Amino acid sequence: MTTVVGIDLGTTNSALAYVNTYGKPEVIPNSEGERITPSVVFFDGDLVIVGQTALEAAVTHPQAVVAGIKRQMGKGEFSYTAPSGQGYSPEQISAFILKKLKQDAEQTLGPLSDCVITVPAYFDDLRRRATIAAGELAGWKVLHVLNEPTAAAVCYGLTQAGLDQTLLVYDLGGGTFDVTVLKVVGSSVIVLATGGNPLLGGRDFDQLLVDHCREAFIEQTGVDPSDDPSTHNDWLRRVERAKRDLSQRQRTSVALSGGGHTTRIDLTRAQFEASASALLAETLDLCEETLSECRLGWQDLDLVLLVGGSTRMPMVTQLITGLTGKPPHTPVNPDEAVALGAALTAVSEAIRQHPEAVKSLNGMTETMALRLGGRTRIEDVTSHSLGILAYVGPHAIHDILVPKNTPVPVEIKRQYKTQYDNQVSLEVPILQGEATDPALCVRLGELRIEGLPPRPEGAPVQVTMRYTRDGTVEVEALDIQANKQARARIDRSKQGLDPRQLAQAQVEMAHLQVE
Ligand code: AMP
Question: Helix crossing, 148-155 with 337-353: angle to 10°?
């Protein structure tokens, strides 16, 4: 029997789910019995510890703990140096998290290999590839990289409702806020626009409470111990718990120690909500920006889906209800919706890629696996535009081949021509971004063809760009007369450079001219 699972690899927390014998997705608790695992890694000498213990170690060993590594994914220049002196890439650190999820789930489910991992809809090719690399390093076979809001829509059964719906997914997690406007048409999920702030999340709400407590602590004890990193981390942990309390009741209190004093500070929901109004307003602005990008307003939405642990704060539901006139869709566990949707998608992906697996998938009957697979099959669209650097006369432009929001998989071919007489080599930089100015785009890599015969300018070159279902990119350039071809390679060493420098460095190279 093959068991396939879905993984929500989050900035703050991660979760793993699978579809059980009855066709129902469920979260598998980790070895500590928790349904979500903090995405935190602690380098304790030779040991690498992931999860709650690592989170707690941030208090005592802040230098040996890495949190929020998802923000660094795909950044070639980032490296974390552990106290042992050993350096780790973001992929390696994420792999530790994915390995813990795997080992823990295997205790319940037996040996595992195939999974679907979710990523934010705005993740570009580099970050998607980095996510796949992290999965492989951890011993997973990554069947598919799935957009988180799409996973949430799948979890809610929106792709099987047989309705055309426009929805906004409001995902407020621990460290990030993502907003995605989606259209569900039958079983297709089309991302219309994405927005958000990668540095806005539950942590900012925690910080508001820490600030409040700091003032109260000084008032009550006359000392300010909050500059000490251990005290700060300890306070953060305690106020985070108090914040959760305030989602349940109107008031709570938190005991805080520092500088030789201990005191208890009262907190009320009303005061917390008042202090958080600017943060909430920012999420609202980001939603409206994203809606206006696809020329929609709140009144055009069929529903708003809440995802992420921070949407448990009652002020979020109130905000959305006030704007749309109806309550949002809130699952019982908003922090599990993405993992559950990924688990369902893992079934349809496994059947799509290995039709023979349907006979023994997750212990389900073949009929059930097929029914489920059919219901959760989805189509995604690209979240960024992709093109190449080419010339129009003397001007370098980003010539977009695959525009943002194109359904994937997609293959686009376009004809170019050589730029100079006797151009014996070709350099085709691959760009991602919405601007036509190449200096404002991200360079994903380049194609190079050498050893071309000398000819007058204008020799035809065909560029083919393919966007796979995982959101990864393949590019080919074919010099038609010379019958020489090159395929894209993602040059990791260049990822850290400022795109402006890259564009500058291009000028002397042998490029293509737009036809
Ligand atoms: P996620 O990244 O989706 O797991 O969300 C984690 C964030 O959700 C953290 O900032 C938590 O503090 C926050 N969170 C979880 N439960 C609650 C709750 N009951 N009330 C407020 N925030 C919560």
Answer: 90
**Superfamily in which the 202-275 domain is placed by CATH:** ATPase, substrate binding domain, subdomain 4 (3.90.640.10)
Q: In whole angstroms, what is the distance from residue 165 CA to residue 302 CA?
A: 6
Residue 425 phi/psi, 5-degree rounding, is -140, 160
Q: Where in the chain is the domain with CATH 2.60.34.10?
A: 386-514
pLDDT tens figures, 377-421: 776 767 678 899 999 988 999 999 998 878 778 999 999 999 989
Q: What separation in Å is there between the alpha carbon of 308 and the centre of ligand 1?
A: 7
Domain 386-514 top-level CATH class: mainly beta
**For residue 472, what are the CA distances in angstroms to 124, 130, 286, 355, 409?**
8, 10, 27, 23, 10
What pLDDT, on the 0 to 100 scale, is given for residue 502? Answer: 41
Residue 492 has pLDDT above 80, yes or no: no
Q: How far is the CA of 332 from the centre of ligand 1 (A)?
A: 13
- Nearest CA residue ID for atom 15, ligand 1: 309
The atom of ligand 1 lying closest to the CA of 203 is: 10
For ligand 1, the distance from its centroid to the CA atom of residue 497, given in whole angstroms, is 35
Residues of the chain with CATH 3.90.640.10: 202-275
**CATH fold of 1-156+333-380:** Nucleotidyltransferase; domain 5 (3.30.420)
The set of protein residues with a Cβ atom below 6 angstroms from ligand 1 is: 10, 12-13, 36, 173-174, 201-203, 240, 243-244, 247, 308-310, 312-313, 335
